[in-house]
Automatic annotation (TrEMBL):
Name by which UniProt lists this protein: WYL domain-containing protein
Organism: Zobellella aerophila
Taxonomic lineage from the root: Bacteria, Pseudomonadati, Pseudomonadota, Gammaproteobacteria, Aeromonadales
WYL domain span: 141-206
Domain spans labelled DNA-binding transcriptional repressor CapW C-terminal dimerisation: 244-300
InterPro entries in the cross-refs: CapW_CTD, WHD_CapW, WYL_dom
Pfam families from the UniProt entry: BrxR_CTD, WHD_BrxR, WYL
Domain DNA-binding transcriptional repressor CapW winged helix-turn-helix: from-to ranges: 38-108
Amino acid sequence: MQYSQYIKPAIASDTQTISVTDLASKRLKAGAFSHPQWLRLCYIERQLLWERRLTTTMLMETFGISRPQAQKDIKLYQQLAPKALKPYQLSIPYHQPTESFEPVLLSEADLQWQAIEEYAPPIAAHTTEMPMLIRRHNLRVLARLLSAIEHQRSIEAVVATMSSPKGRGRRLMPTAIAFVNNRYHVRAFCWDNMAYRDFLIGRFKSTPKVVKPSKGVKDWGDNAPAFERCRGVPPESDAEWEQMIELELRPNPHLSQDQQALIVTDYELEHDRGLKRIVLRKPLIGYFLVDNRIPASEAEYKFAVHENPKAWPVFAFTTDSNRPAHKLGF
């Protein structure tokens, strides 16, 4: 059963978020914040978004500041985003984001996962840089999905896919976020397909809304939506996501010995105990192969063996075997 009838594209006003962001931007331009303080405020928001917690010690150790200064920064952030933090509890030794937390300082252009500031490449007459296509992100959707994962909530949203480019209503239970090359995916149990799937966060066309099973209904019957029958709990765990697989990266064995040696050097494949090995969750292996130009299908593998080995310089095998990674069936 589809859930389109329950979901309407979100047209709700973002006035509060926009006004707060504009306020912070205006204050920054007016010199209300020093640059170091602005970085600390962004760091506070990044911790709330990704780690779901914040302590004064984090600020002190990261920026080398005193406890009073760290507390002052947290209070300033609370003024900029009054709905971002739960009331502090003595029994919980850290600040927590509210379930409806949304970033107001971080931009969608830079989700600030691994760094609080990125530097532009230097401009020099004797160098150039190949531009990369940037995939669309939606920071508000990301924040809602992370909150749903933390609180184990199911959500409803309109999501576009290649098979439904205009988008359709889906009911999902998000379980993990994965950053693949330049795009964010959410791993979720899809109540329409009754299976775990990956969805591009940039293709969410509405803001996810939390949905809960109806209360007071003892027996929905076999014709009821699966979400209601299962009381909002997926009937099985994501076994594939929990499965960790080790891959060994080797130069294409169909290159000459000298060419293979060159590839080992190019890609730094050689380590102290042999060739390079990596451990990945099973559903991520396909993305890894595609993004690193390693054969990801039987057709690509045959082409790399018989037609043009130079175009596929690196192969991936399950460790201690000659089984190509694409045969794992991700």
